[in-house]
From TrEMBL, chain A:
Membrane disposition: Lipid-anchor
Gene Ontology biological process terms, A to Z: phosphate ion transport
Keyword set includes Membrane: yes
Free-text function comment from the UniProt entry: Part of the ABC transporter complex PstSACB involved in phosphate import. Involved in the system for phosphate transport across the cytoplasmic membrane.
Subunit text: The complex is composed of two ATP-binding proteins (PstB), two transmembrane proteins (PstC and PstA) and a solute-binding protein (PstS).
Any single Pfam family the record assigns to this protein: PBP_like_2
Region (Disordered): 23-43
Coiled-coil positions: none
Organism: Fontibacillus panacisegetis
The protein, known as: Phosphate-binding protein
Automatic annotation (TrEMBL), chain B:
GO biological process: phosphate ion transport
Secreted is among the record's keywords: no
UniProt subcellular location: Cell membrane
Lineage: Bacteria, Bacillati, Bacillota, Bacilli, Bacillales
CDD domains for this protein: TM_PBP2
Membrane topology per record: Multi-pass membrane protein
Designated name of the protein: Phosphate transport system permease protein
Keyword Protein biosynthesis (UniProt): no
Broad class of where this protein is predominantly found: membrane
Molecular-function GO term, any one: phosphate transmembrane transporter activity
Length: 309, 300
């Protein structure tokens, strides 16, 4: 009996070890394969092969997903996997080498330490703009930056203080670690805010929209692609949140969608990133899914928020 | 292994015996290895926030301020612990009487109809995905509470209501099995002494099956404690201890699911989330121990 148990244990151990070894070699192989494939491709024109794993931001996922399907149709030997998991996960995995591309809503420097962040190469593929939205029954059309800060820090608790009806303000926020919240706080409020008592926090834009639309006196913020009639969009400092205003720099609440690679990408990944930046994706899928093409932007912004025309 | 010259073949039934043994031991070993490696993984991750980041345990367990992005960051998990306990206990308080009464009806009062139609219907509840419960909660229960009570409808009350429906099948089916396993002689003896049906149920059946019924309730609570998605959708997720049952608050599971993907592995905030996962796992172990203890009492 004891002998058999030992036998079984040894077997298990061998299998697990073997399995570990195998996954390593297979991933190595696929990398080599992609290298070889592209080397060959130079000779035989556009014979890309290999696999790409893109992980991260769920806000960027639909775009990468849609573009990857097109890319795979054009290059049948390439397989691209797109996974969500959040910006933090994407950055960790690309930095650790588990993923080829890390999708992120924020600059890597904002999440990672300086060392690992410096190794990553940024590819900005789209711009996403956000607008403050309120419950349709609240008759407020415009909120200044100052008013927004006061609302989100809890200094103003009633709509009557900002020119609305006598109704309590209900904040529908994002979790403190969310990229969407970081963008909104950085560019709309200009300050970090605490989670207020009684405020609601939801991570998914769909739920935020539903709650803002249904809850009396609610205020939240959504990416432009999520806006519809169930919520009311308010102007920011008198500026409407439109694609034009974002592009010419008058509307400040927007952020880049980043696709990070560790070091310079290999040929397959590079080809895919070039495809993401091509007019075919930028003018079609990007617009279709409610993002703003990077090429349309008349202004650029760096990590510290400095805007240049 | 091969016996001396005359009988080179091992007998068939011995081979079968050994194949059976090896296959079952393999399965068990695989399970044990999985469980232990998971415990090990969560524990090393969860403890690193104490050893590596130097946060003290008292701050996590007793602090009521959760400001992971603040300066300095604060990691008080008390609101989540309170949120988890209050929702799951409240859910059990709602579901236990319902489930046990339903089981009584199905076994003692309407055995034929109950077994044939009611039990499958209740067990069907167990098969509904939790995101559906969450969405129904968000679309039906939250607006209802918003109209009936002060506040926004989201909160412990909404979470507990959704959870109570989710854990109803667990409590009901364990209670049904316990009641059905009761020896008929016990009830007949009670009737023979002149007790009415109500007296028999109340004085004989329920006290005898109580440990098993409680097992069901505790298992239900354990499920409620670990449920993440449905609760996260209806509880509001503000990291504060609420003043009422209808004010936004968080549970351990909801804060983990909300923030885990947004934080970087190995960062302080991520490690603290793993600590919360460790607390969650410890609590599940406690629930399992309570169940074992109740089962032992039931056997006596």
């Amino acid at each position: 009996m004891k002998k058999s148990l030992m036998l079984v244990l040894t077997l298990i151990l061998t299998f697990t070890l073997a399995a570990c070894g195998q996954s390593n070699t297979s991933s190595n192989k696929s990398n080599e394969g992609s290298q070889e494939g592209t080397n060959g491709g130079n000779a035989a024109a556009s014979e890309l092969s290999g696999s790409i794993l893109a992980v991260g931001s769920s806000a960027l996922q639909p775009l990468v997903d849609q573009a990857s399907k097109k890319f795979m149709d054009l290059n049948p030997k390439v397989s691209i996997q797109v996974q969500g998991g959040g910006s933090g996960t994407g950055l960790t995995q690309v930095s650790g080498g588990q993923a080829d591309i890390g999708n992120s809503d924020v600059f890597a420097e904002e999440k990672l330490d300086a060392g690992p962040a410096a190794e990553l190469v940024d590819h900005q593929v789209a711009v996403v703009a956000m607008a403050a939205v309120i419950n349709p029954d609240v008759n407020v059309d415009n909120l200044t930056k100052d008013q927004l800060v006061k609302i989100f820090t809890g200094e103003v608790k009633n709509w009557s203080e900002v020119g609305g009806p006598d109704q309590a303000i209900q904040i529908v926020n994002r979790p403190a670690s969310s990229g969407t919240r970081a963008t909104f706080e950085k560019y709309a409020l200009g300050t970090k805010t605490d989670d207020l008592e009684g405020s609601i926090q939801e991570d998914s834009s769909g739920t935020v929209k539903k709650l803002v639309g249904e809850t009396p006196g609610a205020i939240g913020y959504l990416a432009l692609s999520y806006l519809d009639d169930s919520v009311k969009v308010v102007k920011y400092d008198g500026v409407e949140a439109t694609e034009e205003n974002v592009a010419n720099g008058t509307y400040p609440v927007w952020a880049y969608e980043h696709m990070y690679t560790k070091g310079e990408p290999n040929d397959v990944v590079k080809a895919f990133l070039e495809f993401m930046a091509s007019d075919e994706v930028q003018n079609k899928d990007v617009v279709e899914l409610g993002y703003i093409p990077v090429s349309k932007m008349e202004v650029t912004r760096d990590l510290d928020g400095n805007i240049t025309k | 292994m091969i016996q001396s010259g005359e009988k080179p073949k091992v007998k068939k039934h011995i081979i079968e015996e050994w194949t059976g043994k090896i296959v079952t031991s393999l399965c068990i070993v695989l399970l044990v290895v999985t469980i232990f490696s998971m415990v090990y993984f969560v524990a090393t991750k969860g403890l690193s926030s104490f050893f590596k980041d130097g946060i003290n345990l008292g701050e996590v367990l007793g602090g009521s301020k959760w400001k992971p992005e603040g300066e300095p960051p604060m990691f008080g998990a008390l609101p989540f612990i309170i949120g988890s306990f209050s929702t799951s206990i409240l859910a059990a308080l709602i579901a236990a009487p319902l489930g046990i009464c339903a089981a009584l009806l199905m076994v003692e009062i309407l055995p034929k109809f109950g077994r044939k139609y009611l039990q499958p219907a209740i067990e069907l509840l167990a098969g509904i995905p939790s995101v559906v419960y969450g969405f129904v909660g968000l679309s039906v229960i939250v607006p209802l509470y918003r109209d009936l009570f002060p506040g926004q409808g989201l909160g412990i009350a909404a979470g507990a209501s959704v959870l109570s429906i989710m854990i109803l099948p667990t409590i009901t089916s364990i209670a049904t099995d316990a009641l059905a396993a009761l020896p008929a002689g016990l009830k007949e003896g009670s009737y023979a002494l002149g007790a009415t049906r109500w007296q028999t149920l109340y004085r004989t059946v329920l006290p005898t099956t109580m440990p098993s019924l409680l097992t069901g309730v505790v298992l239900g609570m354990a499920r409620a404690f670990g449920e993440a998605l449905a609760v996260q959708m209806v509880i509001g997720n503000a990291p504060h201890i609420p003043n009422s049952l209808f004010e936004s608050t968080s549970t351990l599971t909801s804060v983990i699911t909300l923030s885990m993907g947004n934080t970087v592995m190995g960062s302080m905030q991520n490690n603290v989330l793993w600590t919360l996962a460790l607390i969650l796992m410890m609590m599940t172990f406690v629930f399992v121990f309570i169940v074992r203890w109740l089962e032992r009492r039931a056997q006596r």
